[in-house]
Design goal:
Among the domains are: 35 residues, no CATH class; 49 residues. The chain is built from 3 helices and 2 strands, in the order ββααα. The chain is rod-shaped, with a radius of gyration of 28 Å. The mean pLDDT is 79. Bound molecules: zinc ion.
């Protein structure tokens, strides 16, 4: 017993919720990770500013309108084009071929405003028969 009175020094760098353990015990005796410090036991640095650079990029879908400037479009903007791109994606083509064809669709869309039947035929020919699952 080193702490006679059992008093802990109030460390400003230690999480005040778990007391630096990084874990908290609930009423049922279960040990859970401290929600305040996330298990580190350290008080989160509070600079007054939230780090907004860490926002995760999750499945953001491009809903660019036709004709709108899309500097880095990676997916067709029309339903037909997207369907075609999906077929390319699920085909057994090489990744670089898939990428090229998808880009062709996007380019075709930007010049024609939509996917023409001839174009779809042309692309489908390159995709080949779809693998039935
Ligand atoms: Zn904590």
């Amino acid at each position: 017993m080193s702490y006679g009175a059992g008093m802990k020094e109030a460390d400003p760098n230690v999480c005040g919720v778990c007391g630096g353990d990084g874990r908290i015990e609930n009423a049922w005796g279960q040990v859970a990770r401290c929600p305040s410090c996330g298990g580190s036991g350290k008080r989160a640095e509070d600079t007054g500013f939230r780090d907004v650079t860490k926002t995760k990029e999750s499945h953001h879908k491009n809903t660019h309108r036709i004709g709108a400037p899309a500097p880095k479009q990676t997916w067709p903007s029309t339903a037909v084009g997207a369907q075609l791109a999906n077929d390319i994606k699920s085909s057994s083509l090489a990744p670089e071929t898939k990428e090229r064809l998808t880009r062709e669709i996007i380019e075709h869309e930007s010049t024609h405003g939509q996917c023409t039947k001839t174009f779809i035929k042309k692309v489908r020919k390159q995709i080949g028969p779809l693998a039935k699952s």
